[in-house]
Specification:
This protein has helices spanning 2-40, 48-79. The relative contact order is 0.11. It contains two helices and no strands.
Length: 80
């Protein structure tokens, strides 16, 4: 029974890890795209779409950080 709980926890951790990695990869690629577009077409930064995409990218990073801290807190809470 205890092994089943441990296995479920490991699956949850792996799922959370994969989700975080996907969010991080998206964040990195989006920031690279934003930087390249900033230097290629500087007039693009004045558009509303560019600013909205920047805010969305920041929200993706914030959500990844929240997931990291929540999952760490849950793991620490279970070990007590």
């Amino acid at each position: 029974m205890n092994a089943l709980r441990t296995n479920r926890r490991n699956e949850e951790r792996r799922d959370i890890f994969i989700l975080r990695q996907v969010l991080n990869i998206f964040f990195i690629l989006a920031v690279i795209a934003l930087i390249v577009s900033y230097f290629v077409r500087p007039s693009l930064i004045d558009t509303m779409g560019y600013k909205i995409f920047c805010m969305f990218v920041v929200l993706v990073k914030i959500s990844e950080m929240i997931i990291r801290f929540i999952s760490r807190k849950n793991i620490e809470g279970r070990n007590k």
